[in-house]
Amino acid sequence: MSKSKSVSKLNRQNSTNKVLLSYDQTIALMEEFIAAKHAHNEKIKKKKEAYETAEEYLSSFFTSKYGVKTIAINWSLTFIRSL
């Protein structure tokens, strides 16, 4: 999913005017996150380093996906709110 398409898919808002993802978008993002976390854990296992928790990895996941820290933080918050 490209950056411009994914940003435009943030389409639902709750009563406090915070953007939420749809159910299908949340599921798709969760599947992508889990696959990326699993791949990351396999790399870490080979290097014999300490594992990151899912919460710790969330920031790394969105930063690597979007590159800009503020966008990554906004996506992290949106993702958590949508759960």
Unreliable segments of 5+ consecutive residues: 1-15
Number of helical segments?
Answer: 4
The major sheet is characterized as: 2 strands, antiparallel
Taking all Cα atoms into account, the compactness measure Rg is: 14 Å
Number of strands: 2
What proportion strand? under 5%
What pattern of helices and strands is seen along the backbone?
Answer: HEEHHH
Tell me the helix content.
Answer: 55-70%
Average pLDDT number:
79
Structure description:
This protein is mostly helical and 83 residues long. The protein contains 4 helices and 2 strands. It has helices spanning 3-8, 23-47, 54-66, 69-82, and strands at 12-13, 19-20. It has a two-stranded antiparallel sheet with strand order 1-2. Helix 3 packs across helix 4. The protein is globular.
